């Protein structure tokens, strides 16, 4: 009898980790409501959703598996070019193109994963950076395929699900990107709360103990890296499809560096960090760019320094306080 | 004779230093065996070869009659060889519940499932609960491991190793650094390990060794100096000179 009640306590405690927090529900309601609330900002919102998906990808390896990367643009770019080329040469169906972008980036992730399995953070930074540089130059020199420095022209997209045409206001684009982000977020949420996700946290916390607990570290890290690459590829595909253009910029170093910033702003290891960071980063970029377009990097640099020196606790404390209040309201409503 | 774990002529050298010097060692099934020796005797080097952290320079290691000399660490765990660490190696951001669930999930072969929810797996829940109960971790299962007292953390070390359901369990100085008040609880945990698990205890604490072990191996300068029952070892003049006598003066 006693044992039975304890087992149900264990079950509940394990369930608690993946239970939906009211703040999460509020977050996604707001994200979809933004479509109606800010009809003139849908292009910006679309960019935010894509950056959020890209940052979610980095969070999967950095926040959960402890793999640092300064070359995540390699997967964004691969996804973008694959989706762009798919639209140009095979067909304009967005979901098929999305699948092609994800598959191409995932394959690249799988192939390059042995490079990041061993070594220190520093070697990982250098290797990921190197892979991204190589891809940039490849895309630059394979002009016949990628359009080189002129970018990939002639990407024409069909309607999403054969129903919704892309428009110049970004209506279809935002909803399409947001739906893809939400779907992939749900998958990621499921993955991090699975035995597989638990084993990634184990490797991040203590690789020695993880292997002594029967976790095959190398195989798990390779799988996580491949999944993250697939996610970044999806972000790249969305970028190519919603702008109907792919330029070398998708493989540029600043993409990877910005992404690190986004995740530092939002915080790694709880899935929402990339999303919140993407919102903060893009809004900040947008706000600064409107009053001083040339000096945007100056202000973001200053912000970064102040943020890391002390602002982080303040912002994260604020987010926690809001989440706590929402939880209180949620409990009140439940009663 | 049935051996749970055996080494044959095991050698490990680092440059000119031989840390493990032609060691033939047998851990009998169901044994309560202690490996003792002064600091620098090569105990940890020996254990690290058994568990696959270090590769032996030469020699063989067998677990339950099967050779495991070159198997990777995780594969040895799957075959029934688990260990604890002299210095806590825990998952600091996890709770005891999560850590035990992780080890149990790996043992049940669930570790590569990316979509299964932990709480929906009845076998996983039952066996995790069983371990938490057995090691008296039920009341603290929800707290972060890093915030728990040191004695409790040592207890989790043993629980996590035991959760792999090993046939051979290596305890590397389980009582090291544990304050007196929490020591009794820890000794009880070690004493309560079931008989079908063969235990090799690597320990400095003679009190714990003589209370727990039915057989003792003394390692000095990487070599087996003597082996026998605790009484024999306590009487052996070479052992007294090399280790016990020296320890008594400390």
Automatic annotation (TrEMBL), chain A:
<feature type="transmembrane region" description="Helical">
    <location>
        <begin position="260"/>
        <end position="284"/>
    </location>
</feature>
<keyword id="KW-1003">Cell membrane</keyword>
<protein>
    <submittedName>
        <fullName>Branched-chain amino acid ABC transporter permease</fullName>
    </submittedName>
</protein>
<feature type="transmembrane region" description="Helical">
    <location>
        <begin position="51"/>
        <end position="75"/>
    </location>
</feature>
<feature type="transmembrane region" description="Helical">
    <location>
        <begin position="95"/>
        <end position="117"/>
    </location>
</feature>
<dbReference type="InterPro" id="IPR001851">
    <property type="entry name" value="ABC_transp_permease"/>
</dbReference>
<feature type="transmembrane region" description="Helical">
    <location>
        <begin position="124"/>
        <end position="145"/>
    </location>
</feature>
<feature type="transmembrane region" description="Helical">
    <location>
        <begin position="173"/>
        <end position="192"/>
    </location>
</feature>
<keyword id="KW-0472">Membrane</keyword>
<feature type="transmembrane region" description="Helical">
    <location>
        <begin position="25"/>
        <end position="44"/>
    </location>
</feature>
<keyword id="KW-0812">Transmembrane</keyword>
<dbReference type="InterPro" id="IPR043428">
    <property type="entry name" value="LivM-like"/>
</dbReference>
<keyword id="KW-1133">Transmembrane helix</keyword>
<dbReference type="Pfam" id="PF02653">
    <property type="entry name" value="BPD_transp_2"/>
</dbReference>
<feature type="transmembrane region" description="Helical">
    <location>
        <begin position="296"/>
        <end position="315"/>
    </location>
</feature>
Automatic annotation (TrEMBL), chain B:
<keyword id="KW-0813">Transport</keyword>
<keyword id="KW-0067">ATP-binding</keyword>
<dbReference type="InterPro" id="IPR032823">
    <property type="entry name" value="BCA_ABC_TP_C"/>
</dbReference>
<dbReference type="InterPro" id="IPR051120">
    <property type="entry name" value="ABC_AA/LPS_Transport"/>
</dbReference>
<feature type="domain" description="ABC transporter">
    <location>
        <begin position="5"/>
        <end position="246"/>
    </location>
</feature>
<dbReference type="InterPro" id="IPR003593">
    <property type="entry name" value="AAA+_ATPase"/>
</dbReference>
<protein>
    <submittedName>
        <fullName>ABC transporter ATP-binding protein</fullName>
    </submittedName>
</protein>
<dbReference type="Pfam" id="PF00005">
    <property type="entry name" value="ABC_tran"/>
</dbReference>
<dbReference type="GO" id="GO:0005524">
    <property type="term" value="F:ATP binding"/>
</dbReference>
<dbReference type="Pfam" id="PF12399">
    <property type="entry name" value="BCA_ABC_TP_C"/>
</dbReference>
<dbReference type="InterPro" id="IPR003439">
    <property type="entry name" value="ABC_transporter-like_ATP-bd"/>
</dbReference>
<keyword id="KW-0547">Nucleotide-binding</keyword>
<dbReference type="InterPro" id="IPR027417">
    <property type="entry name" value="P-loop_NTPase"/>
</dbReference>
